[in-house]
Amino acid sequence: MKNTTNRRNFLKLGLASVIGITVGKELLVKPAHASDLPHLTEDDPQAKALQYVHQAADSDKHCGNCALIQGNDGDEWRPCAIFPGKAVNTNGWCSAWVKKP
């Protein structure tokens, strides 16, 4: 079962990388600041598809300790590779969550 977990995490990170590379070109031209980005809503179609919530049910698994979050530690809303162009709440969670190495 451990191999399945590692494979699943590898696939999640791979998917996030592809999304980040594809959409990230806009961010390279003009760096995004979390304060400039609109906040992701739970009603957003992509957020619904990934079961995003602003408040994580598990205190050990939240956006603040996810490998996909970007920006400065300490900011309440930060950019995420999964939701380009939007800021996620550091207390939030989605099904793409991957523990920081």
TrEMBL record:
| Domain High potential iron-sulfur proteins family profile: start-end pairs | 34-101
The lineage's top-level taxon is Bacteria
- What are the UniProt keywords, alphabetically? 4Fe-4S, Electron transport, Iron, Iron-sulfur, Metal-binding, Transport
Cited InterPro entries: High_potential_FeS_prot, HIPIP_sf, TAT_signal
One of the GO biological process terms: aerobic electron transport chain
Query: What this chain does, per the record?
Result: Specific class of high-redox-potential 4Fe-4S ferredoxins. Functions in anaerobic electron transport in most purple and in some other photosynthetic bacteria and in at least one genus (Paracoccus) of halophilic, denitrifying bacteria.
Q: How does it assemble?
A: Homodimer.
Please state which protein family the record places this protein in: Belongs to the high-potential iron-sulfur protein (HiPIP) family.
Name of the molecule in the record = High-potential iron-sulfur protein
What organism does this protein naturally occur in?
Photobacterium gaetbulicola
